[in-house]
Amino acid sequence: MVKAALMHLEFEALHPFQDGNGRIGRMLITLLLWSSGTISEPHFYVSGYLEEHKDEYIDTMRNVSENNDWEAWCIFFFNAIEKQAIRNLEIAESIKNLYEEMKHVFSDTLSSKWSVNALDFIFTNPIFRNNRFTSKSGIPTPTAARFTRMLLDKGLLSTIEESSGRRPALYAFEPLLKLVRV
Q1: Which of 92, 115, 159, 182 is the most exposed place for a label (fewest CB within 10 A)?
Q2: What is the value of pTM for the model shown?
Q3: How much is the pLDDT for 16?
Q4: Are the C-beta atoms of 106 and 119 separated by less than 8 Å?
């Protein structure tokens, strides 16, 4: 954790790119924690906390440059990791609960042996084009197309982009997206 804190601050201080330093710096946190075995998979999202506390984040980093206050930086960083980890767990639990709830909703709405296949595809691809759904879900094409219409009618899917010419419509599964946008 100390290595990740020091690496992140040093990377941000170097500012090696014209744009994207923050995003790359936050990805490096995750990659360092993963490569050191601190986390089991490279799926740790820390940006939420740092964006939420942006002024304190920047001020604490500047304080290292101006006053060599590494201790305050490490305390801020460790707190950020802890708070975001708790939030990530809450989001994961909410996603699990939504999935369990949607099993029943999809089963009732679609009344098909394919309802769990549809649910699994949509949870894996919450934004998708219908041609991808019909070709990748394992559901027969006419059935998948019918499912899309039924889920739209039920308000579970929303249309992001209407179909145009040969390009199929783009849909979103808003219940899941609302959870991950937090």
Answers
A1: 182
A2: 0.79
A3: 67
A4: yes
